[in-house]
Write a structure and sequence with these properties.
The protein is an alpha/beta fold. It has a domain of 121 residues: Rossmann fold (3-Layer(aba) Sandwich). It contains nine helices and ten strands. The strands form two sheets. A six-stranded mixed β-sheet has the order 6-7-8-3-9-10, sandwiched between helices. A four-stranded antiparallel β-sheet has the order 2-1-4-5, covered by helices on one side. A hairpin with a 2-residue loop joins strand 1 and strand 2. The protein is globular, with a radius of gyration of 18 Å. The termini are far apart. The model has no long low-confidence stretch (mean pLDDT 93).
Length: 244
């Protein structure tokens, strides 16, 4: 396999606070990698840096072999190659579900409206939201809104899907339906980098896991191995606290 996304020595500070301190990672095609760690460990900042939503202070990011950390790069063009789903659904409240799901495809990727709507309806049918296509987001549950946000992100066949704690804003009974959709995308071969606090999900779905703490990668390895027998004391402490 070849790396779709490579980050080397990424540093990022906000004022005097160093949030990322030399983080490196590789994401292969059709691979699912989970970022775990305590709040403030740098997971969300790392995802935002990879998608160029935050400028990095040092390091290099390659996407499909292209150096997207070059300051001369077309940042909007790079972002169009990613699909991103945030903690909060970020659906436009004045647009229908269908218009939300097709917006980037039509405006950024210049997909003809009919083609975009046909593709969107296939996705909405697949995720059980076809009957909500003409509704506005406030008529949907949190789980339905997050599934619509995922459909929007994958509509354009992104090279990498970035998922940032996508269940953290959901009521517990709605978490499962969103994770089931991600599990399905993973089984279809999507390339996914996800920050998550759902440890069982990370263990069962991710190929590899990176444990972040204090802006560094403390430990990484195959998901089941890392959860079954973490090598680093800090990793063991973190996982033990979660299971206590």
């Amino acid at each position: 396999m070849s790396a779709v996304l490579t980050a080397s020595g990424i540093w990022k500070a906000f004022g005097d606070k160093e949030v990322l301190r030399g983080i490196s990672l590789e994401l292969e095609a059709n691979e699912v990698v989970a970022l775990i760690g305590p709040s403030g460990s740098g997971k969300s900042t790392l995802l935002r840096c990879l998608n160029l939503l935050e400028p990095i202070d040092d390091g290099q990011i390659l996407l499909g072999g292209d150096d997207i950390s070059d300051p001369r790069v077309d940042a909007d063009g790079v972002r169009a190659r990613f699909g991103v789903v945030f903690q909060h659904y970020n659906l436009f409240p004045h647009l229908s579900v269908l218009d939300n799901v097709t917006l980037a495809a039509r405006r950024v990727h210049r997909m003809p409206r009919q083609e975009a709507e046909d593709r969107a309806m296939r996705w909405l049918e697949r995720i059980g939201l076809a009957d909500k296509a003409r509704e506005h987001p406030d008529r949907l549950s949190g789980g339905q809104q997050q599934r619509a946000a995922i459909a929007r992100a994958i509509m354009t066949d992104p090279e990498v899907l970035l998922l940032d704690e996508i269940t953290s804003a959901l009521d517990p009974e709605l978490v499962g339906e969103v994770l089931d959709l991600v599990r399905e995308l993973a089984s279809d071969g999507a390339t996914i980098l996800m920050a998550t606090h759902e440890m069982a999900f990370a263990r069962d779905v991710a190929h590899r896991v990176l444990f972040l703490d204090g802006g560094v990668v403390v430990e990484e390895g195959p998901a089941r191995e890392l959860f079954a027998a973490p090598r680093e004391p800090r990793t063991r402490e973190f996982l033990a606290r979660l299971s206590a």
